[in-house]
Structures are given as C-alpha cells and as structure tokens.
Specification:
Helix content: 40-55%
CATH topology of the largest domain: Alpha-Beta Plaits
CATH superfamily of the largest domain: Ribosomal protein S6/Translation elongation factor EF1B
Largest sheet: 4 strands, antiparallel
Strand order of the largest sheet: 1-2-4-3
Number of helices: 3
Shape: rod-shaped
CATH class of the largest domain: Alpha Beta
Radius of gyration: 52 Å
Number of strands: 4
Distance between the termini: 118 Å
CATH architecture of the largest domain: 2-Layer Sandwich
C-alpha cells in the first residue's frame, strides 16, 4: 500500500525544490525577472539585427548581379542582332548561289553533245519552278540538219545531259536537202560555279 499525503501543498514537509526561492523578497524576484527578460530581449534583438544584415548583404549582392547582367545583356544585344543579320545574309547567299545557273558550263556541255552537220536556229531556257537548283523549267531548241537520222541522233545525245528531262520531238519536216526540227525538254540545271 502506498501512503498518500492529505496535507495542502503549503503545509507539507519541504522537499529539495519546494523551499527554493521562499527566502527571496518580491523586489529581488522582480529584479532577477527583469534582468532575465532584458537579456532575452537583447539576445532576440541581436539575432534580428544579424539576420537583417545578412538579408541586406544578399539584397546588395543580388542588385549587383542584376546590374552586371543588364550590362552584359546590353553588350550582347548588338552581337545577337549582328549574328541574326549574318545568318539571314548567309541564307540569301546560299539560296542565290544554289539557284544561279552556270551558263558557261551548261552551254559547253550542250555544245559537246550536239552532232556535226546540224545548225541551231533558236535556243530557249526558262525556269518556272522558283529559285532552287532543282527547279523545273522548260528548254526548247529548233534547227536544221541533213536527215531524220540526224534528228534522232540529236535526241539521243540530248538524253545524255543530266539537266534535261522528258525530251520530246515537237516536229520534224523535210524540205529540200535539210530537215527542220523542234525539240522540247524539262530543264533543271545544276547551280553554282564548277
């Protein structure tokens, strides 16, 4: 069985902690409490000012970094504009160079495949598909030769040119000692210089 003390707390025999502070006067308790409260207030104020200085330092660092970033962006803006302009010019140059017909090479190849004993009366080449190297166009020639066999030879020789396609005989007529002919084809010359 366990003993139970029925006396009120103030009448019980004092334990180690029960007597502590009983001999202190109220003024002394208020003074010690004030000192403890002041020490806590000073510690809290110190922590507040320390954290405030850390935040202000970080704000200053952020402002400095943003100012440097703005300066770098201002320096980089003309460079980006120049790069965009250079890219646009290079694209235009590639497009023009790719669409340009090297007439010297084209006509040299054409002259090499033509057989002898023929003469041209007209040559027409027109692009109808745009400004790209693979643009389809039309190619037409008319001329005279000595026989229908020579007209067939011209058709065979024109088929050797890679920039001509769908070669067809428009007309061939014999008059006296010569044959008049017209030939048409698709025209897609290779662009650029050799």
């Amino acid at each position: 069985m366990q003993a139970v003390n029925l006396l009120p707390a103030y009448a019980r025999p004092a334990g180690r902690w029960a007597t502590m502070g009983k001999d202190l006067s109220p003024q002394r308790v208020i003074r010690l409490g004030g000192i403890a409260a002041a020490a806590c207030a000073i510690a809290i104020a110190g922590f507040y000012f320390f954290e405030r200085s850390v935040v202000n330092d970080r704000k200053a660092t952020l402002a400095d970094t943003q100012a440097r970033l703005a300066a770098v962006e201002a320096t980089a803006a003309p460079l980006r504009a120049a790069e965009a302009s250079s890219t646009a010019r290079a694209t235009v140059i590639r497009t023009v160079a790719g669409a340009r017909v090297n007439w010297e090479r084209t006509l040299t190849d054409f002259a090499r495949v033509l057989p002898d004993q023929m003469s041209l009366q007209s040559l027409q080449a027109a692009s109808t598909g745009g400004a790209t190297p693979s643009a389809a166009g039309t190619f037409a020639i008319s001329g005279t030769t000595t026989s229908h066999v020579r007209v067939a030879l011209i058709l065979d020789r024109l088929a050797l040119l890679p920039w001509l396609s769908d070669i067809s005989l428009g007309s061939s007529s014999h008059s006296g000692t010569s044959d008049q002919f017209t030939i048409s084809a698709g025209f897609a010359p290779a662009g650029g210089a050799p």
